[in-house]
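Worked example (supplementary).
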Amino acid sequence: MNTNDLPASIQITEEGPREGFQIEPGPIATTDKVRLINALSETGLRTIQVCSFVSGRLVPGWVDADDVVAALRKRDSVDYTALWFNAKGMHRALAHAETLTLTGCIHTVASDAFCQSNLNRTLDENTTAMRAHTATHQEQGIEVKKIMVMAAFGCNFSGDATVDKTVGAVDTGMAIANEAQTSITEIALADTMGWANPRLIERIVGAVRERWPDIAIKLHLHDTRGLGIANAYAGLGMGVTRFDTTVGGLGGCPFAAKQSSRTDDVYKPLPPGNIATEELVLLASELGIETGVDIDALLDVGKMAESIVGHSLPSATLRGGSLSSYRNALGA
Amino acid sequence: MNTNDLPASIQITEEGPREGFQIEPGPIATTDKVRLINALSETGLRTIQVCSFVSGRLVPGWVDADDVVAALRKRDSVDYTALWFNAKGMHRALAHAETLTLTGCIHTVASDAFCQSNLNRTLDENTTAMRAHTATHQEQGIEVKKIMVMAAFGCNFSGDATVDKTVGAVDTGMAIANEAQTSITEIALADTMGWANPRLIERIVGAVRERWPDIAIKLHLHDTRGLGIANAYAGLGMGVTRFDTTVGGLGGCPFAAKQSSRTDDVYKPLPPGNIATEELVLLASELGIETGVDIDALLDVGKMAESIVGHSLPSATLRGGSLSSYRNALGA
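After joint prediction of all chains, the assembly is encoded as:
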């Protein structure tokens, strides 16, 4: 790593609304979700994942996904995206095609054991499912342009990552895309369970880049163990320009919940939150990397997110503030 | 930075007892302080800063410093250290010379404005004071072997750091040491107000190393804004082998206090906590760097620290746990 290898700018996908509101124990009012999305739209963020089209029975937090999308105040400079896992979810998303930017994603897994335990199918069965998933999207005119590899940096059920497993999972996705004659423009590598460290990021991103030098790499990092921003820094050093984050670190272990069962839960795998948007924006801006985001406006939205969920969020930047107020006061 | 430049091992100075207990609003029982120090002694940590010999009027949390040192169960493998700022404090420490490892430190400041506002004197006045401080220590047979530069990476009162200011502050300390004919073996660079970023760490550590290539560099990092572990990683990449940390991130903004005044304090400079010991130990061990510390034993002590102070601590590793339980379960 030398001092010239950082990217000039990065693209951040804000997933706070989608990630955050599915994990909170209490119901969050639809108006609060919309209020947060509208506020995020004013910070300079250019992509916001606003909801998940999933079964309201399985994920009660997203029973109002349609209402949220219908109510949000669309801003032209922002791409609003959503998540879904099956044809039913896709059709719900299609009903909002005027508001949402719809793109299909092939999900693969770098761990057979995680695929089995989380998706309840083998890797081969997942490949079959993803072929069908791709075809379903293409039939509806939704382009399938992305691959996301889950457990790309290690797994609670199968242990440490290897370059072979993660590159193999990308390869599986590429084979599905090739068969379907669609061209992949982004490979997202997800540290689903918080196993990454900076050197592992360098190793795996390096191997994927070497194999597919012309395809953009995105990092979807969780700050499960406190190494998330160091991992993002390693990614920046490798020239990664796309990141998924959540404002305030929404989706992370709520401190309130943590405190209520203090004595026995420290070693349980707690819900791993994404890296906080404002921590990545601060890191990038201090390194001279353009994000397009006004960090102080974003910190106000983080404060709003805390008031909506009713507890502190993990982001340290939210507590410590940015450096711009000091620099402004000093006339720098 | 290449993949061969990480150190084989690092030395961690645990400052949790000293840093943490001076900032907590409520009184912490002397027995609890001793219990935490004794537990830390069993984790493999080799240096623990156990108290501050300061005025009990100014810092009520350390009114019992003598009692704590008298009661701790000394372990031969551990160096117990203490902090003091004047001759009175030094004499209190001397009374515990059988228990404590006593070393003098020359404190310099890379910001005139911070020196004025925090120490209530100009840089020149500080130099005069540090000359006297050094002489006082030498008269008592305490070697002065360290320099610590405060605000080495930037300052709320004077803005961004420059290499010249920080190298100049080290130089001031070196001149004091030379006059006193003592040989400095460690230069500690403190990110007192959380202004560092990874590239700034590289730049400033690199400049100090170039000027004094044979003297060990220590980083004293605060995680004020969430970049602390990324900064530590940058330090490791520069070959830094000494770090100050606190278990759990003790000393950081207590979440409880934060929540009680939620609406108006987000942008105030909150008490900046040190980077958490277990986050640095996890980072190091995942990178193959030896620390001597049993991370799972340390996490138990972090849990003890939370129960002593009565609120959650900032460390994400404390919430997310280590990876060793998974690896052990998988037989890896």
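Two points are worth noting when inspecting this output. The CA atoms of residues 202 and 234 of chain A lie 6 Å apart. Chain A has two domains: 1-102+246-263+275-332, 104-239.
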